[in-house]
Every structure is written in C-alpha cells, then in structure tokens.
Amino acid sequence: MNNILITSAGRRVSLVRMFKKELKRFFPEAKLYTADADPSLSAACQESDGAFKVMKNDDGGYIDELLSLARRLDVKIIIPTIDTGLQNLADHQELFEREGIKVMICSSNLIETCRDKRKTSSFFLENGIDTPALYDKNALQFPLFIKPYNGSMSVDTFHITSEMEITAQHLINDKLMFMEYIDSSQYDEFTIDMYYGKDHKLKCLVPRKRLEVRGGEINKGLTVKNFVFEYLKQKLSHINGAIGCLTLQLFYNEDNQAVKAIEINPRFGGGYPLSYLSGANYPEYIIREYLMNEQIVPFNDWEDDLLMLRYDDEVLVHGANL
C-alpha cells in the first residue's frame, strides 16, 4: 500500500489536506497518516486517515519507534515537518530505505549546513548569493541583529540599535550569532518554496512576499515572479544532496535589486499552502517521483500575484476523551 506519514503534524492542517487530496487522486485506497507527540490535541491529526502518538523527535529511541510505526502502517514515504528532528532523520535515512521507506529529507551534510546558520551563510557566499555580514563579538557594528545559529521560528532573536543594548548574556551565549541588520523599510522579506528532484536539480520555485508574519510564520503573503525568481533559478539550479521541498528566506531591495539571503529550512514551510494553491504541486511531485518512479520536469507556470490572507479556524472533536 502506498501510504504516506506526516510527522510532527501539529497544526499543519492545510499540508495534511493537500497530501491527502493528492494521494487519493493517484491511489484511492492509500492512507495519509499523521504522527505527533500529542495527537489528541493536534488539529492536523484530526484530518488524517489515522493519527499516532510518538515520542518527541529529539528523544532517544525516536528513530526506532518511527521505523516500527512506518513498518506497521505499510508507509512508503515519511514527510518530516519540524527542524529539531531533521538531523537525526537524515543520519538514519538508510535504515528506513532498507525497509523500502523513503524519508523526504536532504543529505546529512546538507541538513547540517542548513541547521547551522553560520554554515548556511558560507553556502550562500560560495554560490554567489549575498548574505548579511557576520560580526565578531569584539568588533560589532550597529545596528545589528542577534539570533541563534541553530534556531527557528524567530525564537531568541534581538534587534540591537546601540552598544548600550548589548548584555553580558548576549556575549557569553555561544549559540548566538551577530549579524548585519537589514532595514525592513528598504528591503522586502521573501520566502521561496523550492522543489528539488531525485537528481538534486531545481524543478520549481515560488517566491512569496511576506506581507505580515505571526509567530514566525507568514500570515499574509503574495506570490511574485520578479527578479528573485530568475536570480535563484540561475544561482541554485543544482544543490548537492537536495531533494523535495526546501524553504529559503531572503531580503530583497527592489530599487537596486540587492539580495540578502538569510537561511534555508530543508522542509515544507508553514506558508507552503500559498505556493500549492498557485499551482506548484509539490505533494504531486513527491508521489510521482517516489511512488510512480516518474521524472519531474521543470514547472514555472504557477499563478503570479496570488494573495493569501490567513484567518483562524476551528477543528472540533466530538466526544473527546482527554
């Protein structure tokens, strides 16, 4: 059975619905399963064909538990969705492949590069893409921006305008990096959903302009086929070890076409539903490549200037026994 499992489902309702829709379109009898540390309180788990409790993905024993679950459910593809478990999965993906299970994850080396934002900065520069300058703690320039080199969701980030705002806690924390501050009045922020095939070549990319962000995730966004689109098509047409969906973030100054790339998340991002609705159907690509053994041809004909306005909705569970 060509079943798919989405891990750390949480509140990724749209992603679950999209994968479920595309999977049923090709394989009507197949199941779209979800796993979560607390599926009873996960909205996305209520939308799947079956939800299963697993330990947190950075706990010891997680890999064995996930492998056992995937084997029992006859899962062929696993879609990880959260940063903290990516390196662990990448390091053990051959264990799953020996069981005929494909974990949609990049190579271990590429995951390491993406998770350590200092290495990500070097990756951008090696590919001819400008990135905010990194400052030594003893040679800071103001204003600046502080963030963890392995952080996510804008946690523990600080905009520092002067030396007076720097604290001893900032300076002694080895996990913090000090960066050039990018003025949002001069730059627009973009997230780019990129799809890489089995051959590690770029098949599709959709720049999304971040008009409003809530909790580190896009709340209002617009697809834009502009300079960024052509620029990244040229610069990142091939990435060693890249497969599936990668989400790149950058700042772009339209007046002088300056690009400042800041990070890559090697997974589906929270705003991917906008790219999907514009026509960039990455769940279909995954199904065609890994369940039907088809090649994916480059696709650029997604809808430009598509505006997404998100709102809160509810998932109700009747008779819940918590």
Account of the 3D structure:
There is one protein chain. The chain is an alpha/beta fold. The chain is built from 10 helices and 15 strands. The strands form 3 sheets. The protein has a 6-stranded antiparallel sheet. The protein is globular.
- Biggest pleated-sheet summary: 6 strands, antiparallel
**Low-pLDDT residue spans:** none
Strand content: 25-35%
pLDDT averaged over residues: 95
| Structure summary, number of beta strands | 15
| Count of DSSP-assigned helices | 10
Radius of gyration from the CA trace? 20 Å
Q: What global shape is seen? A: globular
Question: What's the order of the H and E elements?
Answer: EHEEHEHHEHHEEEHEEEEHEEHHE
Order of the strands making up the biggest sheet: 14-13-10-11-12-15
Features:
322 residues, alpha/beta, six-stranded antiparallel β-sheet, five-stranded parallel β-sheet
Secondary-structure blueprint:
Elements: E1 3-6, H1 13-26, E2 32-36, E3 51-53, H2 62-72, E4 75-79, H3 86-91, H4 93-97, E5 102-103, H5 108-115, H6 117-126, E6 134-135, E7 144-148, E8 158-160, H7 168-172, E9 176-180, E10 188-196, E11 202-214, E12 217-223, H8 227-235, E13 244-253, E14 258-265, H9 272-278, H10 282-290, E15 307-309
Helix pairs in contact: 5-6
Can you describe this structure in just a few lines?
With 322 residues, this protein is α/β, with parallel strands linked by helices. The chain has ten helices and 15 strands.
